[in-house]
Design a protein that fits this description.
With 718 residues, this protein is α+β, with helices and mostly antiparallel strands. Helix content is 19%, strand content 28%. Among the domains are: 57 residues, no CATH class; 296 residues, Distorted Sandwich (Beta-galactosidase, Chain A, domain 5), CATH 2.70.98.20; 101 residues, Cytochrome Bc1 Complex, Chain D, domain 2, CATH 1.10.760. Helix 1 runs antiparallel to helix 3 and helix 1 packs antiparallel against helix 11. About 9% of the residues have low confidence.
C-alpha cells in the first residue's frame, strides 16, 4: 500500500470511528429519552391526590439498599385508631410501604407528618404491594431493556399503555411467590389486543410476555363524564346510625354502625380484590381506594329503599367504559334495613382482561354486637346449630344450609343475626369462602397490602385455632364471582350495562331465635340434600346440573367451551398461554400412547383431561387439574366427535386465519428465554437492545483496523 493510500485509509477509519461512536451515543440518548417518555406515560395514569405525603417521604429511611419505596398515604380517622394513643388522627399520620427485595414482603411504617417521626414499624412477609407511580419507573426501565419487549413494542416510549402497572401473579412461575407487576400496552399493530409484560420486581427481570384478546367496541353511549371523587359522611335513618370514609386502598371503610343505639359492627372494608384468569394462569391483586389501582369515580351515594337505605360507591379505571379492554369497574354497597338487617354487596362490571375469569372481593367485617366482648357464633351442622369453638375456614359456604337457608349465626346478649350468601348466579355456581377469626392486633385492622395470589392470604395466615366463642371476633367473606361463556349472558367480560354485571350479596338478617327443625323437617332436608361425591367419580361437575356448551359448528363449540382461551388451535386458537399448542395435534397424537389411536387419545383427553398430560406446556410441564374436568357432562357426544374430527386434520400446515369473535390474529406467548410459538404472528419489528451490541462490535472492528493501520505504516519511498 502506498503512503498516500495508507493515509487515506487511516483518515477514513478515523472518520468512521467518530461516526460510529456518535451514532452509539445518539442511540443511547434516544433510548433513554424513550424510556423516560414511557415512564412519564405510566406515571400519568396514576391519579394524584391532594395532600398525599408520598413525595416528601419517598427517601425517608431507605438507607438499606434492599428496600424499594412503594408509597406513603395519609390515614383516615378509623385507620388511625390503632395509633391514636401516639397522637394519630385523620390525615396527620401516614402509612408508608416499602418492599424488601432481600427477604420478601413489605416493611410498613406509621409516620407522624408534622415531624416525620416513625411511630410504628412492622414487617409483613406475605404482602405483595400494589403498583404506584414510584414503582412504575423501575418496572418500565426493566421492561425497556428486555429484547422480547422491544421486539414487539420497538420504541417503548411510543407504546400506548392500556392501564396502570398492576400488582400481579402467575400460578406457574416465580411470580407466584415473588412480587411482580404487569405492564399492559395496546398492540402496536392496531389489532385491538393487549400486550402484557410481567416484570419480576424481586429479581429485576421480565418474567413473561403475552397477548390477550381483542374485542369490538359496543354500540352504547359514552358514560357521563365523571371526576375522581368521593364523599365521606354519616347517615341516620330507620334506627341506623353509620359513618363511612374513603381509604387509600381498602375501599370505603364503614365504621361505628349502630342500630337503635346498639353497636352492630365497628368496621367493614374491602382490603383487596383478586381477578383470576385460568388461561394465563394468574391474575391481579386489585385494590379500590383514592390511591388504588381502581379509584373512586363520582360521589358516594345514599339511596332511599322501600324498607331502608343503601350507601354505594363506584370505582372505575376509565371513563370510556365499557369500550375498553383490561379496565375494571366495581361497586361497593351496604344496604341497611329498618328491621336491623344489613347486606354487604359487591358488583363487578368487567370487562377485565380475558375470558373465563373469577373476581374475589375480600370483605373484612369486625362484628361488635353491643360491644367488642362476648361475641358468640354458631354454625349449622347437619341437624342442629352448633357452637363454633375455634377459628374456622368455611368452604363451601353455600351448601348444607340450615332450615331457613342460613349457614352461620352470631349473637351477643339479646342480639342475634343469621348469615348467608344470597344466590344470584342463574347457573347455580354461587360460592364463597368464609373465615371466622379471633380479633387480634395487627391482623387486618391496619391498612393492608394484598397477599400472594390465589392463597386467600390474608386472612388464612391468621388461622391459629384460637378460641372464638365468647371472644371478640372478625369475619372475612370472599365471594367467588365467575364469568361465563355460555348462555344466558351473565357476568360476561363483554358487558352491556345493566344486563350482566356480577353481584355477590351477603345477607345478614336479624332474628329472635335460631329455629330447631322438627324430625319431619330434618328428614325432608336430608332427602333433598346434595349427595356427596363418591370416590369413583373421575370428573365431578361443578354443580348438580352443569350448563351445556352451546354450538353446532366446531368454531362455536371451541369458543363457547373456552378452549381457545388456553390453547392455540390452528387458525382458531388465539391463546397458547397455558395449554399446549394443538395446531399439529393431528399427527402428534399418533403413537403418543402405545396401542391408542390418535382419535381415541384426543377423545379421552377431552372428557378425561388428566388421562394423559401432554409432554410440555408453554410455561413448563403440563399440570393436572388445570383443564376443566366436566366436559363429559357439558358436551354432547356429537360435539365431542366434531372436535375430534377437526383436531385430527391439524398437522401444523394450516395457515393462521381470521376469527373475528376472538381477535384478528393469533395471540402469542413468549416464555422467558424462548421464541414465539409456531404459527404466531403480530410481532412488530422495532429497535432491539441488541442493536447496541452490534454497534459496539462495529466500533471494535474499526478501532482494531485503525490500530493495525497505525502500526503497519509503510516507509516513505524516496
Amino acid at each position: 500500500m502506498t503512503p498516500k493510500l495508507h493515509r487515506l485509509a487511516l483518515r477514513l477509519c478515523f472518520t468512521l470511528l467518530i461516526l460510529l461512536i456518535g451514532n452509539l451515543l445518539l442511540s443511547l440518548w434516544q433510548q433513554r429519552a424513550s424510556i423516560n417518555l414511557a415512564i412519564a406515560k405510566g406515571q400519568q395514569l396514576y391519579m394524584s391526590t391532594d395532600g398525599q405525603p408520598a413525595e416528601e417521604l419517598a427517601n425517608l429511611n431507605t438507607a438499606e439498599s434492599s428496600l424499594i419505596f412503594v408509597n406513603a398515604l395519609p390515614l383516615s380517622l378509623a385507620e388511625a385508631r390503632p395509633w391514636s394513643e401516639l397522637g394519630c388522627t385523620a390525615n396527620n399520620c401516614a402509612h408508608a410501604t416499602y418492599f424488601d427485595r432481600a427477604s420478601g414482603g413489605t416493611v410498613n411504617q406509621i409516620i407522624s407528618l408534622p415531624d416525620n417521626a416513625v411511630l410504628a414499624e412492622w414487617h409483613d412477609v406475605l404482602a405483595r404491594p400494589a403498583g404506584s407511580s414510584f414503582v412504575a419507573e423501575e418496572a418500565i426501565r426493566i421492561a425497556a431493556n428486555d429484547p422480547t419487549v422491544t421486539a414487539v413494542l420497538g420504541d417503548i416510549g411510543a407504546g400506548d399503555p392500556a392501564m396502570i402497572p398492576m400488582s400481579a401473579w402467575l400460578a406457574d412461575g416465580d411470580c407466584h411467590e415473588d412480587w411482580c407487576v404487569d405492564l399492559t400496552f395496546h398492540s402496536p399493530s392496531g389489532d385491538g389486543r393487549i400486550f402484557h409484560v410481567f416484570v419480576n420486581m424481586s429479581q429485576q427481570t421480565v418474567a413473561r410476555a403475552f397477548y390477550t384478546r381483542a374485542r369490538p367496541d359496543l354500540d352504547v353511549a359514552m358514560p357521563t363524564s365523571q371526576r375522581a371523587a368521593f364523599t365521606d359522611g354519616c347517615h341516620e335513618q330507620d334506627g341506623w346510625n353509620v359513618c363511612w370514609e374513603m381509604t387509600a386502598h381498602d375501599g370505603v371503610l364503614f365504621r361505628d354502625a349502630a342500630y337503635n343505639d346498639t353497636t352492630i359492627f365497628t368496621s367493614v372494608k374491602i382490603p383487596q380484590i383478586e381477578a383470576w384468569y385460568p388461561s394465563w394462569p394468574g391474575g391481579y391483586r386489585d385494590e379500590i381506594g383514592f390511591s388504588a389501582t381502581v379509584p373512586p369515580f363520582g360521589d358516594t351515594i345514599v339511596n332511599e329503599l322501600e324498607d331502608g337505605f343503601e350507601v354505594r360507591q363506584l370505582f372505575t379505571e376509565f371513563t370510556r367504559w365499557p369500550n375498553c379492554i383490561c379496565c375494571y369497574r366495581y361497586e361497593q354497597i351496604i344496604r341497611f334495613f329498618a328491621d336491623g338487617s344489613f347486606e354487604p354487596r359487591f358488583v363487578s362490571y368487567g370487562p377485565g382482561c380475558d375470558d373465563l375469569s373469577i373476581y374475589r372481593p375480600f370483605w373484612r367485617i369486625d362484628v361488635d354486637l353491643g360491644g367488642p366482648e362476648d361475641d358468640q357464633v354458631w354454625l349449622w351442622q347437619e341437624t342442629e346449630w352448633a357452637e363454633v369453638e375455634t377459628e374456622q375456614e368455611l368452604f363451601p359456604f353455600v351448601d348444607d344450609l340450615g332450615p331457613d337457608g342460613f349457614k352461620l349465626a352470631t349473637g351477643s346478649g339479646d342480639l342475634l343475626y343469621r348469615w348467608t350468601m344470597l344466590p344470584t348466579d342463574p347457573l347455580g355456581l354461587d360460592e364463597a369462602r368464609f373465615f371466622i377469626l379471633k380479633e387480634n392486633e395487627m391482623e387486618g385492622e391496619q391498612p393492608l397490602s394484598p397477599g400472594p395470589g390465589d392463597t386467600f392470604q390474608p386472612p388464612r395466615q391468621w388461622l391459629n385455632n384460637e378460641a372464638v366463642f365468647g371472644e371478640d371476633i372478625v369475619l372475612w367473606y370472599v365471594p367467588l364471582l365467575k364469568t361465563k361463556k355460555t348462555e344466558p349472558i351473565w357476568c360476561m367480560p363483554d358487558p352491556e350495562p345493566g344486563i350482566n354485571q356480577c353481584e355477590a350479596i351477603l345477607r345478614v338478617e336479624i332474628t329472635d331465635e335460631l329455629p330447631q327443625p322438627s324430625a319431619e323437617e330434618l328428614a325432608e332436608m336430608q332427602a333433598t340434600a346434595t349427595p356427596a361425591p363418591t370416590d369413583t367419580a373421575v370428573t365431578p361437575a361443578p354443580s348438580p346440573t352443569p350448563r351445556p356448551v352451546q354450538g353446532s359448528t366446531v368454531e362455536e363449540i371451541l369458543l363457547n367451551a373456552g378452549c381457545t382461551s388456553c390453547h392455540a388451535i390452528g387458525p382458531l386458537g388465539e391463546a397458547h398461554k397455558v395449554g399446549p399448542d394443538l395446531s399439529a395435534i393431528g399427527y402428534q397424537a399418533t403413537g403418543r400412547i402405545p396401542d391408542v389411536s390418535a382419535a381415541e387419545y384426543i377423545r379421552q383427553s377431552i372428557v378425561e383431561p388428566n388421562y394423559a398430560l401432554a409432554p410440555a406446556c408453554p410455561n413448563g410441564p403440563c399440570l393436572p387439574n388445570i383443564m376443566p374436568q366436566d366436559y363429559s357432562q357439558r358436551l354432547t357426544a356429537e360435539q365431542v366427535e366434531l372436535i375430534v374430527d377437526y383436531l385430527l386434520k391439524l398437522d401444523g400446515t394450516q395457515p393462521a386465519g381470521d376469527f373475528a369473535v376472538i381477535g384478528e390474529e393469533d395471540t402469542a406467548v413468549f416464555p422467558k428465554g424462548s421464541s414465539a410459538a409456531k404459527g404466531n404472528s403480530g410481532i412488530v419489528p422495532g429497535v432491539n437492545t441488541s442493536s447496541v451490541s452490534v454497534q459496539l462490535i462495529m466500533i471494535g472492528v474499526v478501532f482494531l483496523l485503525t490500530l493495525f493501520l497505525l502500526w503497519k505504516r509503510p516507509y516513505d519511498e524516496e
